[in-house]
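Supplementary notes (optional reading)

For those who missed the lab, this is the record we used. Protein: Amino acid ABC transporter ATP-binding protein. Length: 244 residues.
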Amino acid sequence: MIKVENLSKKYPDKDALKEINVTFPAEETTAIVGPSGSGKSTLLQSLNLLERPTSGQLIIDDLSLDLGQNLSKSQVLEVRKHFGMVFQEKALFTHLTVLHNLTEGPIKVRKISKDQALKKAEELLAQFGMEELADRYPYQLSGGQQQRVAILRALAMEPQYLLLDEPTSALDPELEAQVLRVLRDLAQKETSMIVVTHNMAFARQVADKIVFIDNGAVGYDGKTEDFFNSTDPRIQQFLGAMTF
């Protein structure tokens, strides 16, 4: 379980996050939704300290940190080892094949053997029907294929939690569907995922929980079904703006 208490992020001209209190359950998918510029990505990236919050408490299982204090490098690394991260940009190693993209981190960071890393990578590619991509380089892949490989690369590190920041926003609808199917399969396997997404159909179908961020504050935190059936005027306004 991940929990943030009174988490705030202040910039000189803006309060990006305002006293956020949210729990992210393990073995569930939480979708973070909200209007552009509301603080969704800031919240997500605060969990693995890519964004450094101004104050608050971060609790990951038995680990607890006061985010208002200066954190040591070892503390930051201790937090980050819990997470795999997938961004909007695929950011694969362009000089490595798909197979080697999946093995580089486990070998160099987790210090597992090359044989073990290759076995895990091949299992992941087979699991998602992507074996034929193993010997290709990123430039030989479509955008959707690159993003699917990026997700597998994060999974190859065997993180406790998978963080995804708008993983399909740069893709056209057909390629987006390919990536969302992978995430749906992971959700069905009870992978612990936290996803910032603009795709309300995906959030409704896949997420166990919705966190709605509006102007840096939590506007809703609860079950997916209750969010989409909410009578709250702000939530209705947001959902209405997502359809035409």
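If you only remember one thing from this example: Residues 47 and 202 are 22 Å apart (CA to CA).
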